[in-house]
Amino acid sequence: MNETDTLVVDFAGQDHVIPFAVSALDVRGRAVQLGPMLDSILDRHAYPEPVSRLLAEAITLTVLLGTALKFEGKFILQTQSDGPVSMIVTEFRTPGSIRAYARFDEDRLAENGKDPVALLGKGILAMTIDQGPHTQRYQGIVALDGIGLEEVARRYFRQSEQIPTEVRLGVGEVLTRQEGEGPQHSWTAGGVLLQFLPDSEERMRLKDLPGGDGAIEDDGFQQDDAWTEAQALMGTIEDVELTDSAVQPERLLYRLFHEHGVRVFETNAVLDACSCSRDRVHNVLASMSDEERAQSAENGRIRVTCEFCSTAYEFDPDTVMPA
Description:
Blueprint: E1 16-22, E2 27-34, H1 36-45, H2 49-66, E3 74-81, E4 85-93, E5 97-104, H3 106-111, H4 116-120, E6 122-130, E7 138-145, H5 149-161, E8 165-177, E9 183-196, H6 225-234, H7 239-243, H8 249-257, E10 263-264, E11 268-269, E12 271-272, H9 278-286, H10 290-296, E13 302-305, E14 312-315
Parallel strand pairs: 5-12
Antiparallel strand pairs: 1-2, 1-10, 1-11, 2-9, 3-4, 3-6, 4-5, 6-7, 8-9, 13-14
């Protein structure tokens, strides 16, 4: 390359997950910045701002985890808790479809402010891997006991996979104005998931989590230097670097790991796509008894609205026949 040449970098852009590896630190992971896809999901439901932020975090985490699946199937993240946001469900379907919704109590929401931990309250978060019919589901459960979704992911991998894992999530709002129009609002979010995967399993050994509420006793184990450095670098990430469309994930990865050499691999596009259909809803109704269908009817019609995508389906109870 001479002085007149220009280096052109083809950035993945928003709504694409970027796998990467830093061999010198024995780490690999995925990075993403979500834009139009996320905005479409959140605007469809018109959630209050704190709920949108919390659901955006859950969607980002689900995308980072779901795109790791190497087979056809689903990754489902679901919370059940006593907080103002009593349930979150996000579902990633390979190779890159995501859908999500949240349930919340509007009165309690006003009393608890915007703290994501307070909005969740106490309960459980389940992460389920479903490979389809005739296979056994795998599920890991993490207690929600005053922790946010970043810490949930760390605990999940430590308890279920025994893999040292670090996660950073960020959510942002974008307000723009065009001449003659009111302000335009949109959502953006980003995340980085990093895992320590050396050849030697002993290098990735961590202390066991405590069995109760007591403090963790120091057993003298020294954490691997490479993982310590990787965690320190992750700790320098600011929310704006995750959410600003001008800061592409590739730029962030270069800033973090350029001294060690970071490799990025083929990206994975993520789409806002629901798996519901009229046939699927019909089959559910057909599996019900005549009495149950009659009880579900109102003014002679059965109306079903998908909680994920808000699509409404309407049926005549007399025409819904068992498959």
